């Protein structure tokens, strides 16, 4: 060891417990956003680098120019057995699904790999149990800078309960997609 400490802030979050979440303007999918069928699980993870329990997207039932719908399943396996963390993982896993769906939409729009840059606000409404399915809806809000694509996202349970909302989600251009 050199004794040198290097600290880099990679992420910053602010949590607030509120009596009630402000009204959320639901994502409305237009007809063009329901015409195209997106990729299935194998094609998704041929493009993405995710492995193991982070492969949570099953398919993209709808993909269009301004929005995308993804379907996923919360992993049943506990990524940290024996630590008692499984009950805390619903939020991060379904948030990851929203990030992956926005990334897929940005890749489809631009032909470039996009990674999460920031989330302006995330509200957790409910959780999903291991093995349960859910749907993610992302809406493209436009280019927020030359390197960033802006989105909002909603995650819904299979029974129609709103699980999470993500506002001011930004994806950053990481690199062109490989040809093929």
Offer a quick outline of the entry.
By secondary structure, the chain is α+β, with helices and mostly antiparallel strands. The protein contains 2 helices and 6 strands. A 6-stranded antiparallel beta sheet has the order 1-2-4-5-6-3, with helices on one face.
Report what the structure shows.
With 180 residues, this protein is of the alpha+beta class. It has helices spanning 41-47, 90-110, and strands at residues 57-63, 67-73, 112-124, 133-145, 148-157, 162-176. The mean pLDDT is 82.
The helix count comes to 2
Succession of helices and strands: HEEHEEEE
**Number of strand segments:** 6
Q: What's the oligomerization state?
A: single chain
- Spans of 5+ residues with little confidence (pLDDT < 50)? none
What is the helical fraction, as a range of percent? 10-25%
Strands side by side in the biggest sheet = 1-2-4-5-6-3
What is the terminal separation in angstroms? 44 Å
**Strand residues, percent:** 35-45%
Instruction: State Rg.
Output: 17 Å
Q: In terms of structural class, how would the helical and strand content be classed?
A: alpha+beta
Largest sheet: 6 strands, antiparallel
Q: Mean pLDDT across all residues, rounded?
A: 82
Features:
6 strands, single chain, six-stranded antiparallel β-sheet, 180 residues, alpha+beta, 2 helices, 16% helix
Please render the helix and strand layout as text.
Elements: H1 41-47, E1 57-63, E2 67-73, H2 90-110, E3 112-124, E4 133-145, E5 148-157, E6 162-176
Antiparallel strand pairs: 1-2, 2-4, 3-6, 4-5, 5-6
């Amino acid at each position: 060891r050199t004794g040198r400490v290097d600290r880099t802030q990679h992420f910053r979050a602010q949590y607030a417990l509120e009596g009630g979440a402000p009204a959320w303007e639901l994502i409305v999918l237009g007809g063009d956003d329901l015409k195209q069928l997106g990729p299935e699980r194998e094609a998704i993870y041929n493009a993405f680098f995710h492995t193991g329990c982070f492969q949570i997207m099953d398919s993209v039932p709808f993909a269009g120019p301004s929005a995308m719908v993804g379907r996923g399943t919360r992993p049943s396996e506990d990524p940290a057995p024996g630590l008692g963390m499984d009950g805390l993982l619903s939020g991060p896993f379904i948030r990851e699904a929203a990030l992956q769906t926005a990334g897929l939409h940005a890749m489809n729009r631009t032909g470039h790999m996009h990674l999460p840059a920031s989330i302006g606000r995330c509200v957790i409404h409910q959780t999903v149990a291991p093995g349960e399915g859910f749907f993610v809806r992302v809406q493209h809000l436009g280019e927020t800078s030359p390197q960033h694509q802006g989105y909002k996202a909603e995650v819904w349970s299979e029974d129609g309960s709103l699980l999470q909302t993500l506002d001011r989600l930004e994806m950053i251009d990481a690199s062109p997609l490989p040809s093929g």
